[in-house]
Design a protein that fits this description.
- This protein is α+β, with helices and mostly antiparallel strands and 656 residues long.
- Among the domains are: 169 residues, Tetratricopeptide repeat domain (Serine Threonine Protein Phosphatase 5, Tetratricopeptide repeat, Alpha Horseshoe); 152 residues, 2-Layer Sandwich (Heat Shock Protein 90).
- Helix content is 60%, strand content 14%.
- The protein contains 21 helices and 16 strands.
- The chain has a six-stranded mixed β-sheet, with helices on both faces. Strands 11-13-14-16-15 form a five-stranded mixed β-sheet.
- A hairpin with a 2-residue loop joins strand 13 and strand 14.
- It is elongated and about 145 Å long.
- The two termini are 47 Å apart.
Length: 656
């Protein structure tokens, strides 16, 4: 009957609520989907339009930068690749001859001049003779004298500085440390445009030697800072030497006063090294980039092209120079040029949203146009939200209707699911309760009948045995009485008819009465009940039978769930203004997650041990109700495998 009623409820719910709701949901979803498709299409078109306009602004700015850099390089009347950039966005100006890209230090005339002067026969022959004495003959004194002669006869500062650097090295080898350090200090003060054949300035070598001797940290940092501040590009050898020098300074420098300057120099060098490595990769990949020169652009009437390159994107383009065989490669940092554009009021007003340039294959974004290769523009979510204002009131209305329909549907489904689940759970509990009650009734009735028939037939002649049979009959009768009382009391509690009749009573006497009532069943099963009571407790106003029933229920539970243990404690003591009754067993225990549910009606902890132990699931429910009706409370502390302690707190000063 119940199952048929449930099916009717579900069918009625489907016909009256779910089916119309589904139709309305499908309709609303369809309309919302169409609105979203239209909004996405409009947003995509707006992205394309904005990308084309940003590309035009960017192209104008880049072409202007290119023209300024070429004019500046020509007007400075020097190697165009060595000209200082006019615009801070420009990261590299390289010289292109034929199909080869030359980086700034590779066309540095100062490095070339120094190399030529160092390789002049008259000077180089004297240096080789001194080096033969230093490295082959190991005659450091003779080698030092030859280096001094080279210094005296040197005609150019680079020759004199180079010979002095070798002299200081020889003096250090010969043990004349102070003299060598003095020479290194003089070399450190030389101009940085005096470099060897590798393009490394002589002061850099001197700085390294001074750091190794733990001398002149402050002077070295000052000179390195000057070099970093006045020169943008260094040859690879010098760059890595500078990095090593700064790392050694940070590692070995005892004074903390120079730490900040050293760390700042290290940051600058790391940035320069990243740019250096990217420029070296660019030189290797230059031919495959397929850059178009301005001359071809003018001859073939094609648009100027800017190409993206590198992980930290550079925008590259070729520019013509007065020399027909020479071109300039202009490299601009994409991040910096976009930041410069954003500072332009006319540009920021036209494009108020946030966006960024993205590069690389598979990058998501909109193309900037045919003038840009490998670079796109990606718009931020905030800009998309600003462009998506076309969400109409109709769209919001559809969403609101859909939300309300789904809310009502889900709430109705929840209520139905809750009711059905509750009914099923209650049916299972009642079924389990009936089974447990039947089993608990059957066991004592069987024992009573068996011993009563034995006595009636006169099979036992011994008075002792007859007394044991009679005791068993009385005990099982009391057990039946407790079971029936539990069921009846629970029924009265459910109906709100349970009445307690409090009167002044001694808790000590109640505890003793409960212990005497459980003496026989405990002895029969080998249990030892240890009763510990505090005498002198004042009488309290309680329903004596109800409190005794609560204690008996706890003792009965302790017997059932003691497992292999046979020790049970029953205690009565005073705690502040309350009387504390405790029943302690050392049995199977209760899981911490189940301790809050054991006082629910019909609930029994679902464990394998409990499946073998009969019970109604009402004992603790009644105990909780009795204690709370007397103004007290019940607590449980339990650990799996170690036992449980149930504590009843009753007020000593009971208020009506």
């Amino acid at each position: 009957m119940s199952s048929r009623s449930h099916r009717k409820q579900i069918l009625l719910f489907l016909l009256a609520v779910v089916l119309p709701s589904l139709v309305l949901v499908v309709f609303a979803l369809r309309m919302i989907s169409q609105e979203k498709e239209l909004a996405q299409k409009r947003l995509k078109d707006e992205h394309r339009r904005l990308a084309r306009e940003i590309g035009q602004h960017l192209l104008v700015r880049l072409e202007k930068i290119k023209l300024q850099e070429v004019n500046a390089a020509v007007n400075q009347n020097q190697s165009t690749a060595q000209a200082d950039s006019v615009n801070p966005e420009v990261v590299l100006i390289g010289q292109v001859i034929g199909q080869k890209l030359l980086l700034p230090w590779e066309v540095d005339k100062r490095i070339q001049e120094c190399c030529q002067l160092l390789t002049r026969p008259d000077f180089s022959s004297r240096i080789r003779r001194a080096e033969r004495e230093e490295f082959v003959n190991k005659d450091f004194i003779r080698a030092a004298e030859l280096y001094r002669q080279s210094m005296r006869t040197a005609r150019y500062p680079i020759q004199k500085g180079y010979a002095q650097l070798l002299l200081a090295r020889t003096l250090m080898k010969s043990g004349r440390r102070k003299e060598a350090i003095a020479h290194y200090r003089q070399i450190l003060a030389l101009p940085f445009n005096l470099s060897d054949e590798y393009g490394v300035p002589l002061p850099v070598y001197a700085a390294g030697c001074l750091i190794r001797t733990r001398e002149a940290y402050g002077e070295v940092l000052e000179r390195l800072g000057l070099e970093l501040g006045t020169k943008r590009w260094f040859p690879p050898e010098e760059s890595y030497m500078l990095q090593e020098l700064v790392e050694k300074i940070i590692e070995k420098m005892p004074e903390r006063s120079f730490q900040e300057a050293a760390e700042k120099a290290q940051q600058i060098i790391q940035i320069r090294l990243q740019e250096l490595e990217q420029s070296l990769s660019l030189r290797a990949d230059f031919q495959r980039l397929g850059l178009v020169t301005e001359q071809k652009i003018q001859e073939q009437k094609i648009e100027p092209v800017w190409v993206s390159y590198g992980e930290t994107p550079w925008l590259l383009s070729l520019a013509s120079t007065p020399s027909k065989s020479q071109f300039l490669l202009i490299a601009v940092k994409a991040k910096d040029i976009l930041a410069a554009l954003s500072r332009d009021n006319s540009f920021s007003n036209a494009f108020p949203g946030e966006f960024q340039l993205v590069t690389g294959r598979g990058a998501e974004g909109e193309s900037l146009g045919l003038n840009f290769q490998g670079v796109k523009v990606a718009f931020s979510a905030s800009l998309d939200r600003a462009l998506s204002k076309q969400w109409s009131f109709q769209g919001y209305f559809y969403v609101l209707v859909l939300f309300l329909v789904l809310s009502v549907t889900l709430f109705g489904a929840y209520l139905l699911w809750r009711d059905v689940r509750r009914d099923v759970r209650m049916a299972e509990m009642r079924s389990q309760f009936v089974s447990s009650v039947s089993h608990e009734l059957k066991t004592p009735l069987t024992a009573i009948r068996m011993f009563a028939e034995t006595l009636r037939l006169g099979r036992s002649k011994s008075m002792k045995t007859q007394k044991e049979y009679l005791d068993t009959i009385v005990n099982e009768s009391e057990r039946l009485t407790r079971l029936l009382n539990n069921v009846l009391d629970f029924s009265k509690i459910e109906q709100g008819k349970r009445i307690y009749r409090p009167e002044l009573a001694s808790l000590y006497e109640i505890i003793q009465a409960a212990a005497r009532a459980m003496e026989y069943p405990l002895n029969q099963k080998g249990f030892q009940l240890i009763v510990r009571t505090t005498k002198g407790l004042p009488e309290v106003r309680v329903d004596r039978d109800a409190i005794e029933q609560a204690v008996l229920n706890l003792l009965h539970n302790a017997m059932k769930y003691s497992g292999e243990s046979r020790d049970i404690d029953l205690r009565l003591q005073r705690k502040d203004n309350q009387a504390l009754i405790q029943v302690i067993d050392r049995g199977i225990g209760i899981d911490s997650q189940e301790q809050n549910r054991i006082f629910e009606k019909f609930y029994r902890v679902p464990t394998k041990e409990n499946e073998r132990i009969v019970g109604t699931g009402l004992g603790l429910t009644l105990v909780s109700h009795i204690v709370r009706a007397h103004g007290g409370n019940i607590e449980v502390k339990s650990t799996l495998g170690k036992g449980s302690t149930f504590s009843l707190y009753l007020p000593l000063e009971n208020k009506k």
